[in-house]
Design brief:
heterodimer, A: alpha+beta, 4 helices, B: alpha+beta, Ribosomal Protein S5, domain 2, 6-stranded mixed beta sheet, 4-stranded antiparallel beta sheet
């Protein structure tokens, strides 16, 4: 832990990126035919899969029906082979439940739920390979899946992590940088209005640095939103070409 | 909502005010009670020697557990891991463990074989809002208060000395992270610090910032479906730093007091800290009131107020053949449409009968609930008037008066 140099003197990180560079993002929509919406995203080595069912009738526990909005139900799980050591409990433990809650909170803010009263929208996300930025990959994948399902949202929800080393903010942390004990901030943003849907930070950071860190995270999120936008347009072109429009 | 706009809250606090915080300790080291207004929380720290994790052989283990018992609120259920419990547990873990407030390497006894496991159990005794702040204050105070047994190592043998043999040692704590909760209303327009239970139920979302007195942010977590703006978060962090320094002062003073009392050999503990003057369990504190301009305000109000309405001792006769007793109020039962229709019909009827002066059997009608307004219609012959018994005295007056007509 002490030996790893997260930021070298020339300004390069462990994987050769510069401080504000994002990892390579590749995404595909419409991966599964059965689900209403699905998407797969790769952010560097982190791979996430998201599936959306809905809006449909509230199935389990009718009492959760809201008369004026849709209920959003999220489940986050990690594949047992996703981490270096085999994960014995993919879902149901505290961390997964907390992640599911955060995802639900993020999408309740972004999806126009008042168009679908008394119904339920399910979002299932699975991490196939975890290399830092789990939450961000989930949010980005889920955004694409929701768009694929045709559910209206206020704006793209883009998420990214940011860290702080040697007075420099780093964008899009990988696993080694996250677990190195330094600061890590996860931010979910709606890029057009600059609204923050979720903000989560661990580990110590002096108050004066908070603004620079948040700025870096927001810039990174806007970068991710450009990529997602491109993916959506490309997918739309492919689909309309197939249907001959 | 209205109170937010007027800048006062339900209990008279300002937007950035905390409720009264009271910290008391139990007889054992590591037991601490925190009162945040009416929210009561108890934290207990205990320790145990166990084998460490394989990938961290030199570090001790910290374990946090928050129990939400139904004693605290009728909304909590036993057994089931509710969302709130997971949320609070994770927030406390992130606040205290990830910020490395305790030196875990000092908890190591024999590397790879025996380390101390420090376990913090927090029990909620009464839920009146802002559980996160209360639990964080209780947990960190209990950790500061705790003393672990001294350990002696001679070669391979490890001896744990009991409290009688050697004084227990306090834990080495680097800093005290304390969480401050901000609740947002109306999509971020209004902000309140330290929401009470009622404010929590109507809030849009919550932002929790954990800081220590060196102005280092230990954790930030936003929850609920609110959208924040960057400058809102920055403003909250500034407010939080002020609050945290105040609370840290309070905790240090409480710890000092307790140390003094214990040294002086005085009796200390939970039972001692509760004053036993009354039979009733709940005790409200004497709160000072601003009384300087009360008289002036009262006089102003009296001068500006209208004269009280004259009470009608006898029935009023608005026209020939009609008598009116009492003034009715507007019905608030929401049956307005039906009543209005009935009203219109009745009014038409009245007019017809009024003009035609037909004989009508007396009808006592109840118009518009509340204080009943009875329109008694009479024919030239004064018949027996049927009036509900509640208005019996009035009816007597009526019949007498009308008889004289």
């Amino acid at each position: 832990m002490a030996g790893l140099e997260l930021l070298s003197d020339q300004g390069y990180r462990l994987d050769g990126r510069k401080a504000t560079e994002l990892r390579k993002v590749q995404a595909r929509m419409g991966v599964f035919a059965q689900a209403d919406g699905s998407a797969y995203i790769e952010q560097g080595n982190t791979k996430a899969l998201a599936v959306v069912y809905g809006p449909h009738e509230v199935r389990m526990s009718r009492s959760k029906t809201l008369h004026d909005r849709a209920v959003i139900n999220c489940q986050y799980s990690m594949a047992t082979f996703s981490t270096a050591e085999r994960k014995r409990r993919p879902h149901g433990d505290r961390k997964s439940t907390e992640m599911s809650l955060h995802l639900k909170q993020t999408f309740e803010a972004a999806v126009l739920t008042n168009l679908y009263p008394r119904s339920q929208i399910d979002i299932y996300v699975k991490i196939l390979q975890s290399d830092g930025g789990n939450y961000s990959a989930c949010v980005n994948a889920a955004t694409l899946a929701v768009i694929d399902a045709g559910i209206p949202m206020r704006d793209y929800v883009c998420a990214c992590t940011a860290g702080f080393v040697d007075e420099t903010p780093l964008a899009d942390l990988c696993h080694a940088e996250e677990s190195g004990g330094g600061t890590s901030l996860a931010l979910a943003l709606l890029p057009r209005g600059g609204h923050i849907a979720l903000l989560q930070m661990d580990a110590r950071l002096h108050q004066d640095h908070l603004e620079t860190l948040m700025e870096a995270a927001m810039t990174a999120c806007k970068g991710v939103s450009k990529v997602l936008d491109q993916v959506v347009r490309q997918h739309l072109q492919e689909v309309s070409a197939l249907t001959g429009e | 909502k209205m109170l937010c706009m007027l800048d006062i809250r339900l209990d008279g606090r300002q937007t950035y005010d905390y409720r009264n915080i009271k910290i008391s300790f139990g007889t054992d080291y590591g037991c601490c009670f925190v009162d945040l207004g009416k929210t009561r929380v108890m934290a207990q720290v205990s320790c145990e020697l166990i084998t460490p994790k394989e990938n961290r052989p030199n570090d001790g283990i910290m374990f946090f557990n928050i129990e939400l018992s139904p004693m605290a609120s009728p909304a909590f259920e036993t057994g089931r891991q509710s969302e709130l419990m997971v949320k609070l547990n994770r927030q406390l873990e992130r606040c205290l463990r990830n910020s490395k407030c305790i030196d875990t390497e000092s908890l190591c006894v024999v590397s790879g074989e025996k380390v101390w496991q420090i376990r913090v159990d927090v029990h909620l005794l009464n839920h009146d809002g802002n559980l996160m702040d209360a639990t964080s204050i209780a947990a960190i105070t209990a950790l500061c208060h705790f003393r672990r047994p001294d350990v002696g190592i001679q070669g391979e043998d490890v001896t744990v000395y009991s409290t009688e043999e050697r004084d227990p040692i306090p834990l080495s704590i680097y800093h005290m992270p304390i969480s401050v909760s901000f609740s947002f209303f109306q999509q971020g327009t209004y902000l309140l610090v330290d929401p009470c239970d009622r404010e929590e139920r109507v809030m849009d979302g919550l932002l929790m910032i954990a800081m220590n007195k060196h102005r280092e942010i230990c954790s930030i977590q936003s929850s609920g479906g609110i959208m924040l703006l960057k400058d809102q978060v920055l403003r909250c962090s500034k407010i939080a730093s002020v609050k945290v320094s105040e609370i840290t002062e309070l905790i240090n003073r409480a710890l000092e007091n307790d140390k003094k009392v214990r040294k002086a050999g005085g009796r200390c503990g939970f039972a001692e800290s509760m004053p036993q003057e009354r039979i009733t369990a709940l005790k409200t504190h004497v709160s000072p009131l601003e009384m300087t301009d009360v008289e002036e305000k009262a006089n102003e109000i009296v001068l500006r107020a209208e004269a009280p309405p004259q009470t009608v001792p006898s029935p009023v006769l608005p026209g020939p053949g009609t008598g009116q007793v009492g003034e009715g109020l507007q019905s608030s039962w929401g049956l307005e449409e039906e009543e209005e229709e009935e009203e219109e019909e009745e009014e038409e009827e009245e007019e017809q009968q009024h003009k035609a002066e037909e004989e009508v059997t007396c009808v006592a009608e109840e118009k518009r609930g509340g204080n009943c307004k009875y329109l008694l219609r009479f024919t030239s012959l004064v018949p027996d008037v049927f009036v509900p018994s509640c208005q019996l005295q009035y009816s007597q007056n009526c019949t007498d008066k009308f008889r004289t007509m």
